[in-house]
Specification:
Blueprint (H helix, E strand, L loop, with lengths): L1 H11 L8 E3 L1 E13 L7 E14 L3 E4 L2 E9 L2 E10 L19 E14 L5 E14 L5 E7 L2 E9 L9 E12 L1 H8 L18 E15 L2 E11 L15 E15 L3 E3 L4
Pfam family, one: MipA
Protein name: MipA/OmpV family protein
Organism: Uliginosibacterium paludis
Length: about 280
């Protein structure tokens, strides 16, 4: 169940949002597939292919749907303060060569506000350029949860609607393009990249990670609704060049590509419609 939740976060948080009229609630089922590294900088990756339930509910200030969970805390013209979530999968150190003999990495849950600013939008909202600035505190998902630092990932996001429709309708494909740096405090980076004296060995010297710049991410995603079926996919390029922990012995790759897809089928929905203008 936990892996399923993490997979959903990894997929859905990357896909472009919509600004349209939709049912108040929807119920369905989905299938997601994604390939993720054990952690950023790992040279070992895992494939996940899992079914998951799909439920969407939309209030004026709170929405839970394919784009994740967002709570709109305030909306001033082109500036919004939203609630942001994220997650990372667990890692068994016995199955990762770089971390052999070290403690397992617990799954991480991230929560925090995101200040989102609309920089430009076209007439009809077919093109939209936003600046998103999520600041999240991390918590280890374990029997006795522990704080694990914070992350800040400002990024520029371009959404393009109606691709493949000559009349400019938003019913065609949607394209999302995103790019931006990542920053994390020393507690977060130590959790993933530090090596204590007792864990050191010939090919893994002791190392203490510091906080600061953590690399860049570039992402492209597409999605489209086909009646009751929705499809989305993404590819993300991750670069750790120049990161403050780049010289950690646990960083085995400084750049890599990840990809995933999501498919949902909606079999029940509300007759009440609401207009949303998501970021």
């Amino acid at each position: 169940m936990l892996k399923r939740s993490l997979l959903s976060c990894a997929l859905l948080a990357t896909l472009p949002a919509q600004a349209t009229e939709v049912p108040r609630w929807e119920l369905g089922a989905g299938l997601g597939g994604v390939r993720l590294p054990d952690y950023r900088g790992s040279d070992e990756s895992r494939n996940y292919l899992l079914p998951f339930p799909y439920f969407a509910y939309r209030l004026d200030w709170l929405k839970a749907d394919r784009n994740g969970v967002r709570a709109r805390l305030f909306d001033l013209d082109r500036t919004e303060l939203n609630f942001s979530v994220g997650a990372t999968p667990p890692v068994r150190s016995s199955k990762n060569r770089a971390r052999e003999g070290m403690p397992d990495l617990k799954p991480m849950l991230e929560f925090g506000p995101s200040l989102d600013v609309n920089l430009w939008r076209s007439a009809g909202d077919s093109y939209r350029l936003d600046l998103r600035m999520p600041l999240r505190g991390a918590i280890e998902a374990r029997s006795n949860p522990r704080a694990a630092g914070w992350t800040f990932s400002p990024r520029v996001n371009l959404d393009i609607a109606g691709l493949g429709h000559a009349d400019g309708s938003k019913d065609g494909w949607r394209l999302g393009l995103l790019a931006g740096p990542l920053f994390a405090d020393s507690r977060q980076n130590r959790y993933f990249y530090s090596v204590s004296e007792s864990q050191a060995r010939a090919d893994r010297p002791a190392y203490r990670a510091s906080g600061g710049y953590s690399g860049m991410q570039f992402l492209a995603s597409v999605s489209r609704q086909f009646g009751d079926v929705w499809f989305g996919a993404y590819a993300r390029w991750d670069s750790l060049h120049g990161a403050v922990f780049e010289d950690s012995p646990l960083v085995r790759r400084t750049s890599y590509l990840t990809a995933g897809f999501g498919l949902t089928w909606t079999f029940a929905r509300s007759s009440e419609m609401v207009t949303i203008d998501d970021d």
